[in-house]
Write a structure and sequence with these properties.
Radius of gyration: 22 Å
Distance between the termini: 80 Å
Strand order of the largest sheet: 1-2
Largest sheet: 2 strands, antiparallel
Shape: extended
Length: 174
């Protein structure tokens, strides 16, 4: 009997990357991707929506911590479902860890197995969102806008770094 050759189980080849995946790439790879597929942020807004209405106070606090500690500009509206899954996984991991810590007897295998599985889920969600330590070192985001002076005669500020224009920022009227 001759064994059948293995089949690929999914898409192979090039694919369009999302904004979070694109932010993780180095500049040359991100530039090549933009030239090949065009801008990726035109389809989604840059602002992350608020947490879902069904979140309780505990999940809402975890949500706020995730958004506050994420690198600026990495989370977009397209990441909303992934941030929801990450927040729920973090809460469930914390609950199970507290439950194990309250036990007077040594930890049983089923609970520690569940804790390991939840830890893998949290790690995978953090990596997907670019929030793990390794992914943060690979993120190439533009610098945040500078503090702009409060001058009524000033219309814009040009940020120049190493002889290259990094950005032109308009000064808003108050």
């Amino acid at each position: 009997m001759v064994p059948e050759p293995k089949r690929n189980s999914g898409r192979t080849g090039r694919r369009r990357l999302g904004p979070a995946e694109l932010a993780i790439r180095d500049r040359k790879a991100a530039g090549d991707h933009r030239r090949r597929y065009g801008p990726t942020t035109s389809m989604v807004s840059d602002k992350l929506p608020p947490p879902p209405s069904w979140f309780g106070p505990e999940l809402a606090e975890i949500w706020r911590e995730i958004v506050a500690t994420s690198p600026p500009g990495i989370l977009t509206a397209a990441d909303h479902p992934a941030v929801v899954a990450y927040a729920v996984a973090v809460r469930e991991h914390d609950r199970l860890a507290q439950r194990i810590a309250r036990r007077k007897t040594p930890t049983t295998a089923p609970l520690s197995r569940q804790l390991r599985l939840l830890a893998q889920e949290v790690r995978a969600a953090a990596t997907h969102l670019g929030l793990s330590i390794y992914q943060r070192t690979r993120i190439a985001l533009p610098p945040p806008p500078p503090e702009l002076p409060d001058n009524p005669h000033l219309r814009s500020v040009t940020l120049v770094e190493a002889g290259r224009v990094r950005g032109v920022y308009r000064v808003g009227r108050k």
